[in-house]
Amino acid sequence: VKEVQVQQASVRRPPIRVVLADDHPIWRDGVRADLGSGFEVVGEAATADEAIAVIGAQHPDLVVCDLQMPGGGGIAVAKHCGEATRIVILTVSEQERDLLDAVAAGAIGYLTKSTPPDELRAALRRAAAGEPVFAPSLAMLVLGEFRRLATAGEGRSPLTDREREVLQHVARGYTYRDIGERLHIAPKTVENHVRNILDKLHLHRKQELIRYALEHGIE
Amino acid sequence: VRIDGSLLRGLATFRWLAWAWMATVLVLARRALVRPGVAVALVLGALLVTVGLTLLLRRDPRRLLTARAVGLELAVAVSLQVADGLVYAPGHVFSGAQPLGVAWPIAVALSAGVAFGPVVGVACGLVLGAGRAVSSVLAHLPDPAAAAWLGGLTAVQVLSLVTTSVMYALAGGVAGYGARSIRAAQQRLMIAERELAGIQAREEVARQLHDGVLQTLALVERRTGDRDLAQLAREQERELRAFLAGRSAPSGDDGGLGGRLRAAASRCERTYGASVAVLVPDDHPPLAAAQAEAVAGAVTEALTNACKHGQAARIVVYVEPLDDAVFVSVRDDGCGFDPTVTPEGMGLAASVRERIAQVDGEVSVTSAPGRGTEVTMRVPARSAGPAAAGR
């Protein structure tokens, strides 16, 4: 009964306007079919350049974007449009540092292509509302990245203990609601922690680039 | 093959220089010749061989290393050696003057070494030395004192013969040994190059497959209603990823924790059809084999329990390195249980606890009805000591 009510509630809202970017038409078809009635696909693109153009013309609520596409892929799209709209990377890549770059470039979420349709819909709805969505494998990558930062430079992880705890729970497959219950904090607080983690990742990647440029005399 | 080529080119150059030296000796010492016709014929014969082998080097260098080519050169070289005793007046050879066939025959000892190894090189050098010995006997034949075989030679002459033979033998041996080590080094280089090419090819294939086959498998996995087909696709995807990452197939584990856990996940997926994600970072501290085995066994138990009693559809196996330990979590989305009613979760904790206790680890189980179950383990990392060196 509860599920039916939730469904009705989501149907009553205006559909989420989505741009799909993937160089495989069959995948765009597949995702469009999975999205169902709560979403409206307002544009499709097969390359990063096409995606940037379509996003500029359509101003969608959400962009579902493949990581590897001709013309720079999801990283290029996130860099160009990450501030104007919400970008979720949907990819088969796992445990790749490319993903960190995509998230650092401004993507709000990262999901694997094996995510079942119902989970995908739920995650995209949350992403459209501004909530960062993470597959556990990305959480693991982010944790590893901060471990690397801690051992490489400052000696202390840039993450607070609470942030690390939240990230660990995401990597273990917990939802924000579960995490909130386990840590006795509101789901909204969990979400804020995740957003802070992403900001820190973003910042550190940027600092790393600047440090690299200084060390190599690039101006 | 490239290095053999440069060796053979060096040999050809040596042959030409030695032949020029021989021609010079022929002209300079022409007054000492008693059989000039034979001498000229032999020097021309050596020229033919030199030219012939040079042409062969250009056309088909591999044939330079055949028994036929080496045999022909050896025959001409020994003839030259033996003839030295006939073409000059008696006593010339040992009078300090240069005979014809000293330098040029060295080439065949070198060739034999390069072609057939140090032993044949040495043997060939000894044959040449024997040729010189025959030559000195022949040179003394008209002298009645030489009737007693080598008895007519002075100790200095015998010593000179032995020295020459040893030099020829050494030349053949060193050339053979050198060529062999160069070939071995080149072989290693080729293997390394081939491996590198293999890695590069795999990376290229990985890029291609990532965008094609892996996508398609993920699509099949997600869009088919057929559980068996989805499971097959997932398994193929896992194996492909293992191959692309340069690991052996997940079924044959690599001895490390990651390999064992991926193998356990594969078995669980095959048996129960659940989807199991294995997240193991590369930088986890090494566990002793017994520890890795205990963790893999405990994870297998937890997976089985999640599927059998929890009816889980999705499970995450997560490994995280801590400062002095390895943290492992197995979390499922199954039906869970009430720990106050079923304290040890249907014997789950018992089987997991037993294994982890054996390696001084700790286990804890969290569950609630309808909220899935999580089994967490913490195993102390192997202390850094001499035993840790052999990973």
Protein model, in words:
The complex is a heterodimer of chains A (219) and B (391). Chain A has 219 residues and is of the alpha/beta class. Helix content of chain A is 58%, strand content 13%. Chain A has helices spanning 2-12, 25-35, 48-58, 73-81, 97-104, 117-128, 136-152, 161-171, 176-183, 187-215; strands spanning 16-21, 39-45, 62-65, 86-91, 109-112, 133-134. Chain A has a six-stranded parallel sheet, sandwiched between helices. In chain A, helix 6 links the parallel strand 5 (109-112) and strand 6. In chain A, helix 4 packs parallel to helix 5 and helix 8 packs across helix 10 (187-215). Chain A is globular. Chain A starts with a helix and ends with a helix. In chain A, 42% of the residues are buried. Chain B starts with a helix and ends with a helix. Mean pLDDT of chain B is 82; it is low at 249-254 and 384-391. In chain B, helix 4 (106-116) runs antiparallel to helix 5 (118-140), helix 4 (106-116) runs parallel beside helix 6 and helix 7 (213-223) packs antiparallel against helix 8. Chain B has helices spanning 2-28, 36-59, 67-87, 106-116, 118-140, 155-211, 213-223, 227-244, 257-272, 289-308, 348-357, 386-389; strands at residues 275-279, 314-321, 325-332, 362-367, 373-380. At the A-B interface, helix 2 and helix 7 of A face helix 7, helix 8, strand 1 and strand 2 of B.
